[in-house]
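Q: Protein A?
A:
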Amino acid sequence: MFLKLIFLTLFTQVIFANEILVSDNTLEKEILSSSEIYIDYDRNITFDSINTSDVTFKKNSKSILSFGYDPDFDVWIKFKLTNNTNQTIPKIIEYNNPLTTHVEFYQQKNKKYTKIQEGSFFIQKNRNSLNPIFYVTLNPKETKVYYIKVSSYITTLIVKLNLWEEKYFFKQEIKNQLVLTLFFGAMLLLALYNLLVYFFIKDISYLYYVLYVTGIMVHHSIYVGMTSLYIVPHDYVKYLFDFAMVIVTFPILALAFLTKYFLQVKKYPVWNKILNILLVVTFISIFVFVYATEYNNIRSVIPAILFIYLMCLTIYASIQRNRQAFIVLLGWVMLFIAGVSMYLSSLGIYNIYEHVPYIIEVVLISEALIFSVALTDKIKQLQKKKNEANMELILQKEIETIKLTHIVNKKTHNLKVALDEKELLLKELNHRVKNNMQTIVSLIRLQSKKIKDEKIKEMFMTIQNRINAMSHLHDLLYSQDNITYINAYDYFSLVVNELKKSYDNDIDINLTIETDLKVEQSVYCGLILNEMITNSFKYAFPNNIGKIDIYLSKIDDRYILKIEDNGIGYNSTTQTSTLGLILINTLSVDQLDGTIEVNSSNGVKVQITWK
């Protein structure tokens, strides 16, 4: 009995070896580890010759196979699906790699095998999944053998096969595409936000960050298959892969320029020089190796060197206590994790996606957020420096204001001292002029006492009065602080009183003064007043009884001086050449630059107007 049991077990293993049992309850199943593999290094095997004796499939136990970038051979996969139930079972076979360029699926229909072409270069029009899928149907108690031939152009050749229940597959596919859409939406928002910031503050670091995020989105959309499915028309996907080197290198270059300007690498001359050299070499390599697929290993090394150098540069900047470098370094760590995860998965060494779904998307969005935070922190630091600079400027202004105030006060004091000295000197000058004139008047008065001729005495008196008219002005200037204007009433009163002392009569003199006079005009007005009153005293009143009215006013910018008497008047045609009248006319017209009007029909009325 025991021997029968052993025999039955061995027989079952032989019969059902590498068979994949399928049922309605099978929602998802990995089938590559239950398949057989054949590698066609010469690439001369066709499906018609696949079952010849020269082609030997080998059993495979791995759930994922990786053959590196652009392998120069074809990989054949053979597997059996068995339906032991009494129901017809539809299933989906998923080739779990959107980057593989050529995928040929062979399945048996009506005792003949038909081929379905798929892959990133041959996307079926009705396909709405990121990965290539194939629909299969197993009748009750039916076993079918399927073949898949894969090869890759430029991209990595990673083989992984899954068997799905149809509804369950599309439920997971919708979830997967929704997560990826949210990822790209978040990255797009980050790019647009920082682009707006760039337009506002014109910091080139933000533009390079936008280019970096854009490069990451383009690269990852190709990596997960969204570009070939939704963005680029199927017929043009192959042309997109010709620029794979540019697509891979572009975000690294953008990140290099971001690091260069964001960390202000110019502060580290040696590091900056090496970085410039690497940037030039990377640029050249893009254009030299863009179509040279035989140099895949060389052209992929250069961006890797640049990437590693940027990490070392950031570490060095962190050691130099560069504030932004600490944040950027965390971003580099996240980016390094993403890069290593993708590389290990591409080589088939370790598939992190099986343990942490969407790890790449999480890491990339985290890294982008970290760089965005670093840029935001830079704004805060710039604002802080600006505030500090403003405070320093305010303090400097206050210091300069104090200094300037001190200088102004000192100069004002000096000017005040000089002005006081000037006023003192002017007062002293006026005092001396007045004394000198009084001396002259005294000498004239002494001399006139010895003269017997009355006409000569009268002439000497007129001269004295003229000198006194000027002397009184200097006397007033000496006694007041303001030397620009003179009190016209006080001045005219002194002139009038001096004249009344000289001529003993009962003539009334009335003063109506409504304005002050400028000093330079006062002396002329005093002389004119002296001449007019003297003439009235001498000629207008034979009985020494009468009245003289004196008016001084200012209308707008014009001065008006009126001198009127009620005397006997004079004949203007015969008395125009006397010295007094000549002096009055000269002072009014030439010195004051004014006009003079004389009316002698009823007494004498003189009006002088000037600006």
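Q: Protein B?
A:
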Amino acid sequence: MSGVDVVAIVEQVERLLAEAGSLPEAARVAVEKLLNVVEALSSDKKELAEEVDRLRKRLEQKKNNNKTTGNQDESQGGSQDSQDDKRENDHSSQKRRRQREKKRRRTRDRRSFKDLTIHETKECPVDPAILPPDAVRLDDEIVIVQDIEIKPKNTKFQRQVFYSASQQHTYRGPLPPGCDQGDFSANLRALIIALKYCGNMSEPKIGELLENFDVQVSSGSLSNILTNSAAAFEQEYDDILQAGLASTTYQQTDDTSARVAGQFWHTHILCNPFYTFYSTRPRKDRLSVLGVLQNTDDLQFRFGDETLDLLHREFLTVPAKWQSRLADLGDRVYGEADLKSRLDEWFGEKNQQLRTAIEQAAAIVFYRHQSRVPVVRTLVCDDAGQFKLLTDDLALCWIHEGRHYEKLSPVVKRHASALESFRESYWDLYQSLQEYRAGPSAELASRLRVEFDKLFSTRTGYEALDARIAKTLSKREELLTVLAHPEVPLHNNASELGARVSARRRDVSLHSRSERGVRAMDIFTTLVQTSKKLGVSAYTYLCDRLQGTSALPTLSQTITLAAASG
């Protein structure tokens, strides 16, 4: 098909068909099939051309990297290439949805001075010499100018020292709170953490900024502050998840790639309107997601009739031999090490599929019955397999589903018209569901189910579109979860925005050098992003905790209060 203008030829064919009028049924079906073959071949050609172009750009990038530096990391070289690919293959429906908004938001100045603290008031008098005799003073005009003062403040503490020969003990005068953790005050350590996790600055740039203000801090000290300070927030990190899970009936989740000591890991995001929780793990399978939901690296596995039933119903048919062995285990809970030992004894290196199914089913049953953390009843996510079966209800993202329709690019005019018409109907239904969330009723829910069934039973003759519609119809219950639970959002933007935070940090700092470092990253990203949602100054909060004053309520307490009042 090289050199052939497929679009022009198809347009000619459609004109000829229009001139010919109605065709016999057999001829109409034959033409429809041929047009769909053209669509399929054009789509394949486009995908191949995009892949060739992507590989060509990557090769050029590697050549340029080799010319500029001999030791640049390959993954860094591919970073810009990956961003270019993402821009070229952007199938977001955001522009379309914005165009459909009935009311456009008025642009306005987002600044609000009503809550601004005034630190100093200065009068600006008028020189009496320039005033005419009849000048009368009116009300003063108020002008507020914001400023910030950054300057070094080094304090020399003269600690009294006494030595007792009888007790062989030295007594020293205590340092003030916040100044007893090395050479840097709590305020400076909080600023360093805020620059990293609020400002997304790299460690070298943080050092460069502080150097401009005569702060003498080595790269090693910076790294230690960013890593070691996290230990003081371990309990707060755990409490945020507990409070967050209890604050709404649903949770949203997503994941994004991460690099730890050069290895590919995955950062899991769990959130709702009151918090965002980050947990980076080696894998993103169902067991890893269960570990995130329970905030543990030591999963528990429960066996019994419920586990056997779940295996049969959702996983696979278990041979009689293994059914008997599983039944013999009775109703009991295994730890991870004990279960591994038992399964090694049973299977060795064989039957990996059955072994994985047993582990996952037993882990799910344990999670549903444990009481250490609140059990999630509804999970809002994409259609990835690892999120299924964990909760009573699954709510799929309408925007994720809509992207599949944005990817279609028909060359046949009638197919393009059918696609555009379907897209309009798709987002009309989405808008109707959003309106339902604002004012739910049984009558409206029933009508929306009928509209859904009618829309996704459409047959257009454009095979790629019809196949996509059929796939969406198969997800009916997950896409209509909102009708039973109006509080559940229709999209998963919140967790995607949380994942974007990690992605942007990955652009600045390619990877974490150690597991201890990635743990600190999870803790501080959770604290900062949760503070942002709660309207709390992350820097002020970090100062309060590092100084040991604890004058501010914990973030978990703030989550609970916000959920109760919201």
